[in-house]
Amino acid sequence: MAARATVALIGRLALMPDQIADPSDLRGDCAQCFGLCCVALPFARSADFAMNKPAGKACENLQADHRCGIHADLRAKGFSGCTVYDCFGAGQKVSQVTFGGQDWRGGPKERARRMFDVFPVVRQLHELLWYLTEALSLAAAGPVHPELRRALEETERLTRQTPEELAALDVAAHRQEVNVLLLRTSELVRAGARGKGKGRGKGKDRRGADLVGARLRGADLRGASLRGACLIAADLTGADLTGADLIGADLRDTDLTDADLTDAFFLTQPQLNAARGSAGTRLPGTLTRPAHWTSGR
Question: To 10 degrees, what angle do helices 145-159 and 109-136 make?
Answer without folding.
Answer: 170
